[in-house]
Amino acid sequence: MGKSFCKTLLLTAxxxxxxxxxxxxxxxxxxxTLTARVVDAICLLPSGLKGEAxxxxxxxxxxAGVRMYLLDEKANVMYAVMADAxxxxxxxxLREHLERVVTVKGxxxxxxxxxxxISVKAVQKxxxxxxxxxxxxxxxxxxxxxxxxxxxxx
Length: 154
Description:
Elements lengths: L1 H25 L3 E11 H7 L7 H9 L4 E5 L4 E6 L18 E10 L5 E10 L29
Parallel strand pairs: 3-5
Antiparallel strand pairs: 1-2, 1-4, 2-3, 4-5
């Protein structure tokens, strides 16, 4: 009985370790900084409603308890949002930015089916794009002027 009991105990311990491994692997997210629009899926997905014109509706959805999402419009990827701790409102850090573009810092998790979820740690209004392109070193001094001293000579 001693050898049989030891084998059973060893097999049980191995099974527990193998079955619990996916849960351990899920533990920590990958640090991410993302620029995206704060949207509500209730209006975005069926009707395509988003942006400043839809802001008042999004505020109403938020008050009704609808979870907000982050839409990376350049990559066409939507991220679910979760709080950075249990029992916290996941929309709270995004509330003043509904339907606006923000830069979010947090941790990225990938859920079943490839669901992308961000645990939000910090949010700020996204920096405005430079009108003449980010590669123009003179854009700050002379954004789009016809007499751009940095423009190539003809």
